[in-house]
Amino acid sequence: MSSAAKVRVGVVGAGYWGSKHVRTFSSLPDVEHVSVIDPSTERVAALTRGYPGLVSFPSLDGALDCVDAVVIATPPSTHAPLALKAIHAGKHVMIEKPLATSVSDARAIIDAADAMGVVVMVGHTFEYHEAVRALRSIVAQADFGDLYYLDTARLNMGLYQHDVNVLWDLAPHDISILNYVLDSTPTSVECWASRHAHRRWEDIAQLRIHYAQPRVEATVHVSWLHPRKTRLVTAVGSDRMVVFDDLATEERIRIHNKSVRQPELQTDDLSQPPMSYRYGDVVAPYLVVNEPLAVEDEHFVHCVMSGDAPLTGGANGLAVVQVLEAAELARREGRRVYIDEVRERSTLLPESSSVPSIPLQRTTGSMGAVLS
After folding, report:
1. pLDDT, tens digit, for every residue of 62-77?
2. CATH of domain 130-283
3. Cβ proximity of 231 and 292 under 8 Å
4. Region 18-29: what's the mean pLDDT?
5. Among 100, 143, 164, 340, which one has the highest count of C-beta atoms within 10 angstroms of its own C-beta?
6. For residue 250, with 0-12 CB atoms within 10 Å meaning exposed, 13-18 middle and 19 or more buried, which class applies?
C-alpha cells in the first residue's frame, strides 16, 4: 500500500489480548480507524464505551472490505483458518502466539502470505521488550564469559484455555525469548508434562531445549497450577549471571557479578574446597521504559505501510511452532525429539485446503471469537 495512506486495522477477538490491541492501535497516528470483530455484543459494547470511534463486526467475512490489516487474537486453534481467510482476501495479518497449532498450518500461512504478497507477523511480544533486548546484549558481551545454561519459569494460577494445553499457551513466550537471546534455533527438545486439575489438558510442563550454536541447553517451566505468579528468565555464565524478572516494578534486569570455578591446581588436601566461588556487586542497568505491545503494534503498521519484513515474521513464528510440536511428540513418546523430525513430518502431510467461508460464533473462552 502507499506509504502516504493510513492503515485500517481489524482486531479479531475482543478478549484479553484483543482489547489491548484495540487500545494500542487506536493511539497510533498512522491508523485510520480500528474495527473490532467479535460476535459477543457484551464484549464489543464494553470496548466501544472506551473507544466510541470503533467499528464493529460479528464476523471476519463482514469486515474484510473495511480493513487493510487484521490482528488475530482468538483461541490458538482458530489462528490458521482465520489467518488464511484474511490472507486470501489480500489482507496483512498479525497473529497472536502461537502462529498456529501445527507446523503444517504455520507453513500454509507463510506460503499463502508469500503468494499474496502480504505481511505476516507473529505476536512474540517479548522480542519488543527493552529488558529482553538488554538480556541479549548482556549475554553476548565478552565479560559475561561462557554461557553455561538458561532457565525460564512462567507460572501462575490459570488461565486455563479451552483448546490447548499449558505448553502451547505459555511456552511460546519463553521459546521466543530463548531464540532471540541466543540468536539461534534449537536442534532438539525433551518434554515432561502432566494434568491435574483439568481432565484433558496438561497444566504443568517442563522442557529441556538443546541448541547447537551456541552449544547450550535451556530449561522451560510453565504452569497453570502454581500458587505464585512467576515470570523469570535466568542466564548463567562463567563470569556473570543475569536475571530478568518481568514482574519487578523496578530493576527488571539484575546482573550478578558472581561465578563458580574449579581451581586450576588440584591437590589431595581434602580440607580445601573443591570449587572457587566469587561474589561481587549486583548491578541493575537503566532501561528505557516502553510498552512492548505498543512497540510491536507500531512495528506492524510500519511494515504494512513500508513493505519491510517484520522482526517477528512468519519464519520466526514457525521456529517456535516447530519446538512446540517436537515437545508434544517428546511428551507422548517419552524421548528426545530432534527438530528435523517435525520438519520432515510436516512435508509429508497434505497441503492445507482453502478455508471455507464460516461465520464466527460466541464462546465462553477468554479470547473472543472462534470458528464454528
Report:
1. 999 999 999 999 999 9
2. 3.30.360.10
3. no
4. 96
5. 100
6. exposed
